[in-house]
Amino acid sequence: DGGITQSPKYLFRKEGQNVTLSCEQNLNHDAMYWYRQDPGQGLRLIYYSQIVNDFQKGDIAEGYSVSREKKESFPLTVTSAQKNPTAFYLCASSADKNTEAFFGQGTRLTVV
Amino acid sequence: LAKTTQPISMDSYEGQEVNITCSHNNIATNDYITWYQQFPSQGPRFIIQGYKTKVTNEVASLFIPADRKSSTLSLPRVSLSDTAVYYCLVGPGQDSASKIIFGSGTRLSIRP
After folding, report:
1. What are the DSSP calls for A17-52, one per residue?
2. Which one, A7, A33, A90, B32, has least CB within 10 Å?
């Protein structure tokens, strides 16, 4: 089946550790996105990528890093510099800027 | 990117028609209007997209007046399973980057 896959679904880390969240899509989409969602809030854009080997900061990029070495993969690293990393992280992809975005099921990260 | 304003929450009953209005006074000429639905702990799901007049699909209708400064998502005969958060998005406009920006959404609660 075509789709977008995030793993793992739940992730626990100790404070001060970097952690990488996986996002893979087999939809042949050029654009990919990472969002953060806190309880009861909307989605906030962390990073986005329009094509391979290119990405731009979103509204809340501080403390995060990404790479886009392959079209189908857009991993997000939550670094120790992110002050409040505990959140629900969503990855999405779209064919272009005017078409619908497809979302993964999300990764719930808890830092203790 | 045009800013959107929508009600924070709405309540309705099963079998009723629900209309959620979104204001986007600064919509640009080449902006599309897109609506997403999100259930708790899941990624948003595309509902409908339009540019002007009326668009209808199997789950909803989207009404856009001639000035395009607002839009209304219409959900016919809602059921309990329509309880979710609904997001109105406008873009990408003149921005060539493929950013997809979410607002705070409307929390719709359906009662028996």
Report:
1. --EEEEEEE-S--SEEEEEEE-TT--EEEEEEESST
2. A7
From the list B42, B104, B105, the residue facing A106 with the nearest CB is: B42
Residue A65: its H or E element: strand A64-66
Closest to B106 (Cα-Cα) out of B4, B7, B1: B7
Inter-chain touch A97–B87, beta carbons under 8 Å: no
Tokens of B52: 């002007």
Closest residue of B to A87, CA-based?
B41
With CB atoms and an 8 Å threshold, state whether A42 touches B99. Answer: no
pLDDT tens track for A19-48: 999 999 999 999 999 999 999 899 999 999
How many beta carbons lie within 10 A of that of residue B57, not counting itself? 10
* Cα–Cα distance, A58 to A61 (Å, whole number): 6
d(CA A7, CA A11): 9
Phi/psi at A24 (nearest 5 deg)? Answer: -130, 140
CA distance A88 to A10: 9
Structure tokens at A20: 């990488």
Task: Report chain B's C-alpha Rg in angstroms.
Answer: 14
